[in-house]
Design goal:
Shape: globular
CATH architecture: 3-Layer(aba) Sandwich
Strand content: 25-35%
Oligomer: single chain
Number of domains: 1
Radius of gyration: 16 Å
CATH superfamily: EreA-like (biosynthetic domain)
Length: 125
């Protein structure tokens, strides 16, 4: 899908990544359906943990603006562990939801939230 969108939109397309430190969210669990999960703080040396250490509770970061040289460039050009949780999750295999990535190679911007809360039902529904 990304390749097709990139072909259609070229440089007009911006790929965002959502990252978070800790908190609650809803996801599907095999044989149990949609339910709420809560995870503890991200590993301190992970991408998520490093963003949390900034002390900024909600942050948008444009990775296209990373300098070409220097300590900031060196850090971002290394691989870092990050959570990768989508529509499906299981507490039994939480370690399976971590992956090693070099962020600027995978997406253009990061939206980071330190502490997430689960979605709430619309009271009118």
């Amino acid at each position: 899908m990304e390749a097709a969108l990139q072909k259609m939109f070229g440089n007009q397309m911006v790929v965002f990544r959502f990252a978070f430190n800790r908190g609650s969210f809803q996801a599907m669990e095999m044989n149990k359906g949609l339910r709420e999960f809560t995870v503890s703080a991200a590993l301190a040396d992970s991408l998520d943990g490093t963003l949390a250490a900034s002390g900024i509770p909600i942050l948008a970061l444009d990775l296209r603006q990373i300098p070409n040289a220097g300590p900031v460039a060196e850090w971002w050009n290394q691989t870092h562990r990050t959570r990768s949780i989508g529509a499906v999750f299981s507490e039994d295999g939480e370690e399976n939801y971590w992956s090693e990535i070099k962020a600027p190679d995978c997406f253009d911007a990061i939206l980071f939230v330190d502490n997430t809360t689960t979605a709430r039902k619309n009271p009118g529904r």
